[in-house]
């Protein structure tokens, strides 16, 4: 029964896995029937719902109905062969459900974030794009940690070749200054500027393109910080056996 709830979740989240859910929708009466395929009734309401959550737009209703009929026939044949009762099918449904749930959560979180990029930020990005940086990188387990996880690493590269998250942190910095800890995956990074010189290159983007780039970068940094916050406040316990297996890798 558990996989049925996964399928229902997919319908509510994003309308994914339509193929898997055809027979799990509530039965319709003959009065509601728009189509009947080998005794399986499909109502106008179901057609409208499927059309609304279709993964891509159809050229016409006829094309959509034709695809729906093909899907229904394939579903019936798969069920006749017992594929829907196989463990691999249930695991695939669970995986799709979890991916859809995560995507919906991250999309909602991203929509709640509205970073602001000023004209000064755009000008700073243009100025930095002509520079080459020599940096010292330190990684920490959390933003309050005093001891880095591994020895300091030195990197020298053009600004335009650095990761966007690094670029955002370097915009206001001068020689000898360092960034506050910022999230990189599930760790925190600190960069110290050791040297700045001209790179002989410049970014070839419009102001609007730079604004979008910086906005997306700031939004991703905020999402990463939020994710790391979930990790820090969660109670995570690993068994000795799992720790042993991790140590063997």
From TrEMBL:
The chain crosses the membrane at residues 6-25. The keyword rRNA-binding does not apply. SUPFAM superfamilies: Triger factor/SurA peptide-binding domain-like. The keyword Membrane applies. Keywords: Membrane, Transmembrane, Transmembrane helix. This is SurA N-terminal domain-containing protein. The lineage of its organism: Bacteria, Pseudomonadati, Thermodesulfobacteriota, Desulfuromonadia, Desulfuromonadales.
């Amino acid at each position: 029964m558990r996989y049925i709830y996964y399928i229902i979740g997919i319908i509510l989240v994003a309308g994914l896995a339509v193929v898997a859910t055809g027979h799990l929708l509530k039965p319709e009466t003959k009065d509601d029937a728009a189509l009947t395929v080998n005794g399986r009734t499909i109502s106008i309401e179901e057609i409208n719902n499927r059309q609304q959550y279709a993964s891509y737009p159809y050229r016409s209703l006829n094309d959509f109905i034709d695809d729906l009929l093909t899907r229904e026939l394939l579903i019936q044949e798969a069920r006749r062969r017992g594929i829907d009762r196989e463990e691999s099918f249930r695991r695939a449904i669970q995986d799709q459900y979890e991916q859809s749930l995560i995507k919906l959560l991250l999309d909602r979180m991203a929509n709640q974030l509205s970073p602001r990029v000023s004209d000064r930020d755009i000008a700073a990005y243009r100025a930095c794009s002509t520079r080459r940086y020599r940096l010292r990188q330190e990684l920490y387990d959390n933003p309050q940690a005093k001891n880095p996880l591994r020895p300091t690493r030195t990197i020298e590269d053009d600004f335009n070749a650095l990761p966007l998250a690094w670029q955002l942190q370097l915009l206001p910095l001068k020689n000898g200054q360092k960034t506050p800890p910022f999230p990189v995956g599930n760790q925190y990074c600190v960069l110290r500027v050791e040297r700045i010189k001209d790179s002989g290159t410049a970014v070839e983007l419009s102001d609007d393109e730079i604004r979008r780039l910086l906005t997306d970068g700031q939004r991703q940094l905020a999402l990463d910080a939020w994710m790391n916050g979930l990790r820090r406040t969660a109670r995570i316990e690993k068994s000795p056996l799992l720790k042993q297996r991790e140590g063997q890798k």
